[in-house]
Amino acid sequence: MTELAFVSEDRLFDGHLIRFAGLSGDRRVTCAVTLVALKQLDPSLPHEGLLPSEMFVAAYDRHMTDIHHICRQKHARGDYETEGEIDIVVHRSDVKSRRA
Fold first, then answer.
1. What is the C-alpha to C-alpha distance for residues 64 and 90, in angstroms, rounded to an integer?
2. In b/e form, how buried is each residue of 12-40, taking b as 16+ CB within 10 angstroms?
3. What does pTM read for this prediction?
């Protein structure tokens, strides 16, 4: 399996996730990180209340290297989502297991 590469800095906040794309060879792999996982990664994000999308995007930018690393690990294991249009999602449990 070809290693997952991230060649674009494009990301999209959809209210539930931050989506971004990777490439495995010539195949586009749609990836995302949940807002709960971002809060786990970034202790500066408040855990309560409504937060502006810019705060989540800034947290993604700060932790992009870790998020991409988790996506590469999931890709290498074949750990893809079974439903929906997103191939790989970084969940809170992925972040917790990485920090353990």
1. 11
2. ebeeebbbbbbeeeeeebebbbbbebbbb
3. 0.91
